[in-house]
């Protein structure tokens, strides 16, 4: 249901809050001052139902006639009674009948005594004042205290939306620690490769010095081999790709070399490599926990040192968690809601004996 906005209206956040604090339910009798566009009036009518009733008052005559037409058109003519009246001067048309009063007026303090007269005296009743300025709240609270209302409270209703989404599950501490261990192992492996590369260079240099009595052609060939080894352009037999001599952490030192002759008669050097690997109890534990899937080595039985690498499956389904993130902006202020209760006097003539109202303490 959509209503034309002739005045500022109440929205769901305020309507739900007011309905709850005024204890409105099916069969309640409610008084409203300041009909306006009828937004809150329609909500009250749906809440109290056919056994309840709403008396609403509007000072502006044109708005009162328009709201009355809408109530009749929407089927609330039996539930809602609309009156064109200045309640601050003339008061309400009912007395001792309402369970709750809602005041949406520029000067609600002028209608407090009239509201007190409209409220029932045989039970606890409630009042709510809807005021956009804090100065109005201060003056209204003073009058409520003077009129004998108790439990005076004021609220400001704001809305903060949240964005609820799903993200991949964050890695556990164990997984992070395992990644750090693997990184340390790779760093140690790089260090060993660099040491082996340096040893290989020294061996080649020593072999060149010991063969100084050979022919000039053989010396030149050794110099060419040494230059190729120093340049870092080595061929890996396993994947036929060029790798460095260890400067970038991927180089593997050559342990032997040989040449083959091409169709043009030139000689091209080739090299054989050995990859030093590490083995630790931590990698054995990772292998046993992961199983045989994704591993490329097992523990050696000949006492040699090899490194077991555990490769997680890239096809494993990702688990996700739901998170909520609040937006920084908040819906702007509409008005302040001032609530108060009116407690009946035990010796009131309208109190019903035996209904429990005679035990309610007196508040002055």
TrEMBL record:
<dbReference type="GO" id="GO:0030488">
    <property type="term" value="P:tRNA methylation"/>
</dbReference>
<feature type="domain" description="tRNA (adenine(58)-N(1))-methyltransferase catalytic subunit TRM61 C-terminal">
    <location>
        <begin position="2"/>
        <end position="203"/>
    </location>
</feature>
<dbReference type="InterPro" id="IPR029063">
    <property type="entry name" value="SAM-dependent_MTases_sf"/>
</dbReference>
<feature type="compositionally biased region" description="Low complexity">
    <location>
        <begin position="238"/>
        <end position="256"/>
    </location>
</feature>
<keyword id="KW-0819">tRNA processing</keyword>
<protein>
    <recommendedName>
        <fullName>tRNA (adenine(58)-N(1))-methyltransferase catalytic subunit TRM61</fullName>
        <ecNumber>2.1.1.220</ecNumber>
    </recommendedName>
</protein>
<keyword id="KW-0949">S-adenosyl-L-methionine</keyword>
<dbReference type="GO" id="GO:0031515">
    <property type="term" value="C:tRNA (m1A) methyltransferase complex"/>
</dbReference>
<dbReference type="Pfam" id="PF08704">
    <property type="entry name" value="GCD14"/>
</dbReference>
<dbReference type="GO" id="GO:0160107">
    <property type="term" value="F:tRNA (adenine(58)-N1)-methyltransferase activity"/>
</dbReference>
<feature type="compositionally biased region" description="Polar residues">
    <location>
        <begin position="286"/>
        <end position="308"/>
    </location>
</feature>
<dbReference type="GO" id="GO:0005634">
    <property type="term" value="C:nucleus"/>
</dbReference>
<dbReference type="InterPro" id="IPR049470">
    <property type="entry name" value="TRM61_C"/>
</dbReference>
<feature type="region of interest" description="Disordered">
    <location>
        <begin position="203"/>
        <end position="308"/>
    </location>
</feature>
<keyword id="KW-0539">Nucleus</keyword>
<keyword id="KW-0808">Transferase</keyword>
<dbReference type="InterPro" id="IPR014816">
    <property type="entry name" value="tRNA_MeTrfase_Gcd14"/>
</dbReference>
<keyword id="KW-0489">Methyltransferase</keyword>
């Amino acid at each position: 249901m959509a209503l034309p906005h002739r005045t500022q209206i109440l929205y769901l956040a305020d309507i739900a809050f007011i309905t709850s604090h005024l204890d409105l339910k099916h069969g309640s009798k409610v008084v409203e001052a300041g009909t306006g566009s009828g937004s809150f009036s329609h909500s009250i009518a749906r809440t109290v139902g056919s056994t309840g009733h709403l008396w609403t008052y509007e000072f502006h005559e044109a708005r009162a006639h328009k709201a009355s037409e809408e109530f009749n058109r929407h089927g609330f003519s039996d539930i809602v009674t609309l009156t064109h009246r200045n309640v601050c001067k003339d008061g309400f048309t009912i007395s001792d009948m309402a369970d709750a009063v809602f005041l949406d007026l520029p000067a609600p303090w002028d209608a407090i005594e009239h509201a007190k007269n409209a409220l029932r005296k045989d039970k606890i009743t409630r009042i709510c004042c809807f005021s956009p300025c804090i100065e109005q709240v201060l003056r209204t609270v003073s009058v409520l205290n003077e009129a004998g209302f108790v439990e005076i409270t004021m609220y400001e209703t704001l809305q903060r939306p949240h964005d609820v989404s799903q993200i991949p599950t964050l890695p556990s501490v164990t997984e992070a620690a395992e990644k750090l261990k693997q990184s340390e192992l790779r760093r140690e492996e790089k260090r060993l490769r660099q040491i082996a590369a340096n040893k290989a260079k020294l061996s080649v240099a020593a072999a060149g010095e010991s063969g100084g009595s050979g022919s000039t052609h053989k010396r030149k060939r050794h110099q060419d081999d040494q230059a190729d080894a120093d340049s870092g352009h080595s061929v890996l037999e396993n994947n036929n790709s060029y790798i460095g001599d260890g400067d970038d952490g991927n180089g593997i030192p050559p342990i032997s070399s040989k040449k083959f002759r091409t169709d043009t008669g030139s000689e091209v050097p080739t090299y054989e490599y050995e990859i030093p690997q590490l083995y630790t109890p931590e990698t054995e534990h990772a292998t046993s926990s992961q199983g045989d899937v994704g591993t490329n080595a097992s523990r050696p039985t000949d006492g040699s040192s090899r490194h077991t690498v555990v490769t997680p499956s890239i096809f494993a389904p990702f688990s996700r968690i739901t998170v909520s993130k609040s937006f920084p902006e908040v819906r702007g202020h509409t008005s302040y809601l001032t609530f108060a209760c009116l407690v009946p006097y035990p010796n009131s003539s309208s109190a019903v004996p035996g209904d429990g109202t005679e035990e309610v303490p007196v508040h002055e």
